[in-house]
């Protein structure tokens, strides 16, 4: 860790230049010739990234940051806080500690937290930062996590793992066996140290692929912020073999949308209908979950088509996603498009439709934006249609 960065003058300079163009700053003469100018610039860039994502770190004095890329890859405080709501007990070990954001929030719930980080420089930075953040109940270990688990010989209430993809796995289908640590390979050993394991993966991981590699999965949490899925959380409990719960969470500025269901293969009787008065588009967490039939049943809304993942009803219901009033249903043909949408302005969404948004805009000269929301989709009679809507939620 570069302790010269803690110089009060350098810290003041970093704070004064948050948000300033780094390329322009880099051309300036180093105002601190005794210090590494690149390191100072890196701190400015990383702290700028942390402003919204890590407000607690941003507001705390004398925090040292790793690279900007590390800040981009770390959990946000919002998702870290959610993860902490899952765990309980007296002890937790994080096998892939990183910048320590998750552990900061785990430490608010758990008496004893251990942070494992194989990179000694990052481990030292995190240990320093926890002191600045006044978090005394986290112990940092700079070593391979498997070696640390074996050396500590402790039974933990929870093991937390955030595996990272190996560089040689780029371009391949995302599988947990292609990550470090290799969780499927080490799972039996992990369960000798704890009865409960929480695994964070990127949204890119297919749920069915994850289930094919993991055992004893009890719950899968799909966490989105402002309708963008940020992470999947896999909750494993030793010996568990019953139904798997899916929890979808979409954290918005003014509310949190939650929808839970049990994952099973049973066929369900779902109602289909042509467009009615209201149109419902599930949030991204539900879209990732694949719980399309479950949403239809729970909210008593009809599906437009088996593969459209849009819903409709005559009575307005509170729904986890966007809600629209359908102003007009237009058959997708040349005459109707010329009458209603050609050379207009609209927000376009496609669902179960052969053309791309770009090709639709180009073909019909439709500008982006405006008050109209147009859904190009397929109805229950397999007809291509356009739903011209007004957004109400």
Automatic annotation (TrEMBL):
Residues 321-391 form the THUMP-like domain. This is Uncharacterized protein. Pfam families: PG_1098_Fer, Thump_like. Residues 278-320 form the PG-1098 ferredoxin-like domain. It comes from Flavobacterium xanthum. Transmembrane segments: none annotated. It comes from the Bacteria. Gene3D superfamilies: Methyltransferase PG1098, N-terminal domain, Vaccinia Virus protein VP39. The lineage of its organism: Bacteria, Pseudomonadati, Bacteroidota, Flavobacteriia, Flavobacteriales. InterPro entries: PG_1098_Fer (IPR054168), SAM-dependent_MTases_sf (IPR029063), Thump-like (IPR041497).
